[in-house]
Amino acid sequence: MLESLYVKDFAIVDTAEIVFGPGMTVVTGETGAGKSLLVDALLLLAGGRADAAMVRHGCDRAELTAAFDLTAHAGLREWLAAEDLDEGGACQLRRVIRSEGSSRAWINGRPVTLTQIKTLASGLIEIHGQHEHQALLDRAQQLELLDAFGEHEAETAQVARIAQAWRGIAARIHTLAQGADHEERIQWLAHQVEELDRHALTPEALSALEEHHRRLANAGQLLQGCQALAERLDGDSEYALLHLAARAQSETARLLALDERLATVGELIDAAQIQLAEAGVALQRHRASLDLDPERLAEAEAQLGKLHELARKHRVRMPELKAHADTLRNELDALRGAGASIAGLRKEQNRLSADYANAAGLLTVKRMATAARLADSVSALMAELGMHGGRFEVQIEPQADDEPDPQGAERCEFLVSANPGQPPRPLRKVASGGELSRISLAIEVAALGSDAIGTMVFDEVDAGIGGAVAEVVGQKLRALGGRCQVLCVTHLAQVAAQGHHHLRVSKSSDGAATQTRIVALDKTTRREEIARMLGGVEITRETLVHAKQMLESAAR
Prior knowledge:
By secondary structure, the chain is an alpha/beta fold.
C-alpha cells in the first residue's frame, strides 16, 4: 500500500507531501489545476521515461519519493532481500530528474537501475489511464490474472514444478551427450589422472618432502657449522664455553666461602654448565643424523621438479595437485558412465513428460472454464459502466512448442469489443484511453481479490460518462477499494462522493509564478468540493444539500 508521496519542484508543484490511507482516495480540482500530476509522479517512480520539462521552471532538479507498506507482499520483500535492497521491511522509491534531462533512481537509499525499479514497482502499483502502460496489457500478466481468478494455484504450481524438472534433466542429457562423443577427452583425462596419481602429493607429504630436500641440500653447511659449534662448546681451546663455565664455577665457590649470599649465583652457573653439556650431546646426535648423500638429494630435486612441472601444466599450486586429480577423476567417471546415465535420464524424462501432459491438460480444462466465467463477468460490468453492447473475451491459444512449459500448454489474450457490431480486438490495441480505463476497471472488479497489486491508480476513468453510469463507476471503485488501495483522479461528483478519502488540487499565481497545492479535505470542505463539482462556481444551499446526500448515500 502507498503510504506517502513527496514531490519537490515537479512541474508546477513547489513542495507537496501527501499521506495516503487504505480504501479509495479521490483527487479532484478545477480543469488545469494539475490533478494528474500525482499520477505522473507515480509513473516516474515506477520507472517511466523522464523529461527535463518535468522540472519546475527555474529549478535544477525535481525530486520524487514514495513510501510503501510491504506487510502483505512477502514476494516483494524476498525480492528486495535477494537484490540486497532490503532495509528492515521498509520500501522507499526515489527518483531525481535534473533540468538537463538526466535522472537517477534509488530503492531504500541505494542507487538502482530503471529495470530494477520497474520490476519492484510492477508488484506495488498499477496505473490505469490514457496512453499509460498497464500491467493488464501484458499477456503474461493476463494469464496470471486468469489463473488467479480461477484459483488455479495448485495446478499452476504442479505444472511449473514438472516442467522445471523436465528442463533440468534435458540440460543434463545435453551435457552428457556432448561428453559421450568426446573420446579424445576421455583418453586425455585418463592419462592426466594416471600421471597425477603417480606423482601428486598431499599438502602434508609435500611439506615433508620440501623439508627433506632442504636438509639434504644444506647437509655440508650443517656439518661444518655443527663442528664449529661443538668446538665452541667443548673444544681444546681455553675459551670453550664448558671450560669457561668450569672456571666460573670454581671462582664462585671461592667467593661463596666469603659471602653466602652468592649461593644463588652458584646455583645458576651450575645449571648453565649442565645445559651446555646437554647442548653438546644434542649437537653430537644431530651431527650423526646428517647425511651427505648426493643420490638422495638428486632424487628429491627430481621429485620436486616434476611437481613444479605438473603445477604449471595444470595451472594450480603444488599443494592443490592431489585435489585437482580428484576433480579430473570425477569428470572421467562421469564421461565413462555417460551412456548408462543418459538412458536412465531419458527414462525419467519420459515419465515427467507423461506427468506434464496430465497436469497441463487438467490446467487447460480449468483455464477454458475460467475464461468463459471471466468473459461473462467483465462483459456484464462493461454494460453497467456505460459500454452497452460491448463484449469481453479471453482467447486461449495452444503453445507451439512441444516441450513442457512452466506456464502451461497455452497462453491467453484478452479481447474486447467496445461497441456492438465490432469484432473483438486485443485489449492492448484498444485506442480510446477512456474505454481502456473503464474496461480495465471492469476486469479488476470482476477479478476482485485475484491479483496481488496493492495500489491501483485510475486517471480520468470517468472520461465521457455521466449520470447513473458515473455513479456505478464510483461504486465499483469503492468496492475495489475494499480489497486494495485505490487512487482515482476524477472530475465527476458521483465518483468523488464514493471515496473514503478526498484530496483537492488547486492552482494559484502571483503573476510571477504559478503554484499547485494539494490538501486533504475534512467533512465540511469535502461537502463544499462536491457541491462545487455539482454546481460550478456559485455554490447554492441546494447544491450543498445534494452534496451532503451523495456523501451520506456513499457511506451507507
